[in-house]
From TrEMBL:
Site residues (Lowers pKa of active site Tyr), renumbered to this chain: 75
Protein family (similarity comment): Belongs to the aldo/keto reductase family.
Chain positions recorded as substrate binding sites: 108
Residues annotated as domain NADP-dependent oxidoreductase: 16-256
GO molecular function: oxidoreductase activity, acting on the CH-OH group of donors, NAD or NADP as acceptor
Organism: Bifidobacterium dolichotidis
Name assigned to this protein: Glyoxal reductase
Transmembrane segments: none
Record Gene3D superfamilies: NADP-dependent oxidoreductase domain
Keyword vocabulary terms for this entry: NADP, Oxidoreductase
Superkingdom to which the source organism belongs: Bacteria
């Protein structure tokens, strides 16, 4: 059985992705990516600014899988948006990875100049250099402006979302526009305390699952694509071992009720980098 979501341009994306933000450069990332692929992940989410695009690509090469078996996302950084260098940045990322395409290219933040960046991304897409294009960290008004002025709809908006900050209004708005939602820091981010929450542990107990597996499942059942990250082999394996149980509507509600409206990052209105 294939666990995929169909994007608005008919491209299929695996419904759990492996995140590598702040995963150390070099061997750690190569190993983590290879472990993830061994465990069944087929979707890796990196970015130029993470500094590990090459290591991600090496992990994929080391896995023995075909390039076409893995959905790879990378992102356009703010400096390149501000400098109007979208196509150059895209070619640089491809060169770093030694790939001849990426599956998805995303605007990392709505930095000044993103409108022109989106025009260039649309060209990359039309030229067949990338299979899907989208954005990250776009708030409602920014998404609205983008939709008003572009001919190609973004396939995803990747935003912060976790039980402590579901970001539900933005999730719902994005879905209403026919755009998929991906969640960064889906488990509550680095040094997360969420995973020791007793409610999540209790729900997991019923199914023989961990709090982290409950959270991954919660995202999937609300139609959000989670991008959990880990460098621990057992955690990596756990976070994709979520296809043999289902949360009840009541349990979904209980997880949503853990909302304390506290971000670990910043919004698309407040970032300064
Ligand atoms: P570790 O690398 O030790 O597994 P997020 O994806 O929300 O950003 O959360 C990432 C954090 O959650 C990392 O610190 C990661 O640490 C930890 N983590 C990921 N999966 C699990 C898991 N299954 N059990 C416990 N901690 C986890």
């Amino acid at each position: 059985e294939e666990h995929v979501v169909t994007l608005n341009n008919d491209v299929q994306i695996p419904e759990i992705g492996f995140g590598v933000f702040q995963t150390k450069q070099g061997g750690t990332t190569v190993e983590a990516v290879k472990t993830a692929l061994d465990c069944g992940y087929r979707h890796i989410d990196t970015a130029m600014i993470y500094g590990n695009e090459h290591d991600v690509a090496d992990g994929i090469r080391n896995s023995g899988l075909d390039r076409s078996d893995v959905f790879v996302t990378t992102k356009l950084w703010n400096d390149d948006i501000r400098a109007g260098k979208t196509k150059e940045a895209f070619e640089r990322s491809l060169k770093t990875m030694e790939f001849d395409y990426v599956d998805m290219y995303l605007i990392h933040w709505p930095a000044d100049g993103w409108q022109q960046a989106w025009d260039e991304m649309q060209e990359l897409y039309s030229e067949g250099r990338v299979k899907a294009i989208g954005v990250c960290n776009f708030e409602m008004d920014q998404l609205e402006e983008l939709l008003k002025h572009s001919s190609i709809k973004p396939v995803v908006n990747q935003i912060e979302s976790s039980p402590q900050f579901p970001n539900q209004e933005l999730v719902d708005y994005t879905h209403e526009q026919g755009i998929a939602v991906e969640a960064w820091s889906p488990l509550g981010g680095l040094n997360t305390k969420l995973l020791s929450n007793q409610k999540l542990i209790d729900i997991g107990m019923k199914y023989g699952k961990s709090s982290s597996q409950v959270i991954v499942r919660w995202h999937m059942q609300r139609g959000v694509i989670p991008l959990p990250k880990s460098t621990s082999a057992s955690h990596i394996a756990q976070n994709i071992d979520v296809f043999d149980f289902e949360l009840t509507p009541e349990e979904m509600h209980e997880v949503s009720n853990l909302c304390i409206n506290k971000r670990v990052g910043v919004s698309g209105h407040d970032f300064d980098f």
